[in-house]
Amino acid sequence: MFRRIEAVADEIGFFFDGRPLRAMQGETVATALLASGVGVFRSSVVSGAPRAPLCLMGVCFDCLVEIDGVENRQSCLVEIREGMDVRSQNRARQLKQGTISCR
Amino acid sequence: MPVKQMTAAADLADRYDIVVIGAGPAGMAAATEAASHDVRVLLCDENPAPGGQIYRAITRNRPVAFKLLGASYAEGLPLVQRFLDCRADYAAGATVWSLQGAHPESEPEIGLTLGGSARRIRAGRVILATGATERPMPVPGWTLPGVMMAGAAQIALKSASAVPQGRIVLAGCGPLLYLLANQLSDAGAHIVALLDTSDRRQRWAAIQHLPSFAASPYLRKGLSLLVSAYRRIKVIGGVQDIAVSGQDRAEKVRFSTRKKQHVIEADTVLLHQGVIPAINLTSAAGCELVWDDAQHCFRPVVDGVGRTSVPGIICAGDGAGIGGARHAAVAGRIAAMTATTDLRIGTDPDCARQLSALQRRARYLLRGRRFLDLLYHPAPQFRAPRDPDTIVCRCEEIRAGTLRQAVGLGVPGPNQLKTFLRCGMGPCQGRMCAPTVTEIMAEMQGKSPAEVGTYRLRAPVKPLRLAELAAMPHTPAAIQAVAGHAPSDFQPNRKESP
Ligand code: FES
């Protein structure tokens, strides 16, 4: 977990697992979560072990979260936006009911 | 005229003269140079803002972090400014997932995702400026939250003015580790120890290159980094192994030096074993790779001006071999001049003279590299983990012991190992395990990494959503192929009028 070394000029609000948190305009979802004290982003696909970002540069895929309903997004590459709904991911992605429809 | 910020795939042109991939020093310099000729240029980059990792978030106003990051960070400002002032299209937040070289009948083509939809774009030339990634450092417990690569901590500092809370242990080798240690302590972070894993035997190999390092621009900076780190941080040298443990996150670091075993408590552990070229896209495009023994990594084969083995694809900067930010900026310009000359649009009679001046400058900036490469050559136990429980493939959670078993059974190469065990088949597509897999095989089979090779990669090199693919514009031929009738009576994207 991280702390800021300078005052955040333009703060914005977002949600993590329904909890309201604050972020710095222009940063990524990953650093916004780390600086808000979020220590675990997801649980691993195979064993369910807790995971958090390793590289912060788009390489490791350990920062995957659900953002505004879209799963498996690399939070270290997505810029945080006001009101974003971010959710932790549990193991492998589930097929949501109603995601696939055949007509 | 400033760059044109592109936010949707649909707004991009079908074809550009030059497409640059990556907005680090090489990519920005390439795009700026190319745009100064009369050509259409597109620069696509994964990050939300220009600068790459080295100049990450340099355009944002955070006075405290900026001051702390020092002069070498500020060096990026004019480069970024010139890029932002140039006449190129700039797609930030774009993911490039495929790349094809030129064929007799067709030009190079890239596949990318921007703003939620995918698109294919043709290019006269493609300049790959994909930069470097950190070499993985698989140690027991490195999947625990609280363990990060050193580069990640530096990115958090640059882009979010954030430093790890609590007790920090830095472990590994290379100049970046000392740079980060200094920056974090300047920022008031609590560093418990820096565990230096440098292989002392390497000193002899490095020493013969000392004269060229002494004459290089890196000597003074390197020395001052070391001195200031030793002055205020507890540096422990000769560290031979490291293991992180904890319940649900990092709590303890165990390590041994020649004399004894140690345990220290830590909340954050930052690992580093140097950087290597990011070659996923290069490799998927079919560019020939070569093993670089001094830098201990694969890199693309390039000629003196950056052309790869695949027609139409040029590679510049750290992605073509580690040379550092200043070198990358010069290499980017060289690549752009190569591209315009190849396309016969560089009509400047002065071009040849400029090019040779740039090449001289590039060679100068590579001075001293060999010394650093050899001195900080990662120790074997951190390249091919000996402890069988150490996870090598983080995505599929494949451990060193399982890999060694499969290699022992006679699995011939990395690609077969992949099919056999699924290592390298997770979302990172082998980015985190490829170097380790090669090292383990080389060690066990008594071969050189060059002989073992690395994963063969295929597009898409980044996961792609079905919805993004579905949003691709459909060519008439594609519609005919799928729907069995001409496009005129089938328009999947047409909105029904009410
Ligand atoms: S933290 Fe590694 S990909 Fe995001």
TrEMBL record, chain A:
Q: Which residues cross the membrane?
A: none
Q: Any idea which GO molecular function terms this record carries?
A: iron-sulfur cluster binding; oxidoreductase activity
- Signal peptide (UniProt feature, chain positions): none
- Keywords, ordered alphabetically: Oxidoreductase
- Listed name of the protein: (2Fe-2S)-binding protein
> What organism does the UniProt record list as the source?
Paracoccus aestuariivivens
Quote the InterPro entries the UniProt record gives.
Answer: 2Fe-2S-bd_N, 2Fe-2S_ferredoxin-like_sf
TrEMBL record, chain B:
**Record flagged with keyword Glycosyltransferase:** no
Q: Which Pfam families match?
A: Pyr_redox_2, SO_alpha_A3
Task: Give the highest taxon in the source lineage.
Answer: Bacteria
What high-level taxonomic lineage is stated for the organism? Bacteria, Pseudomonadati, Pseudomonadota, Alphaproteobacteria, Rhodobacterales
* Native source species: Paracoccus aestuariivivens
The residue ranges of the SoxA A3 domain are: 396-471
Protein known as: FAD-dependent oxidoreductase
- Tell me the CDD domains matching this sequence: GlpA-like_Fer2_BFD-like (cd19946)
* Keywords for this protein: Oxidoreductase
A molecular function (GO) held by this record is: oxidoreductase activity
Q: Which InterPro entries match?
A: BFD-like_2Fe2S-bd_dom_sf, FAD/NAD-bd_sf, FAD/NAD-binding_dom, Metab_Enz_Cyan_OpOx_G3PDH, Opine_Oxase_asu/HCN_bsu, SoxA_A3
Q: Is the Oxidoreductase keyword given for this protein?
A: yes
Residues in domain FAD/NAD(P)-binding? 16-331
The residues forming a coiled coil are none
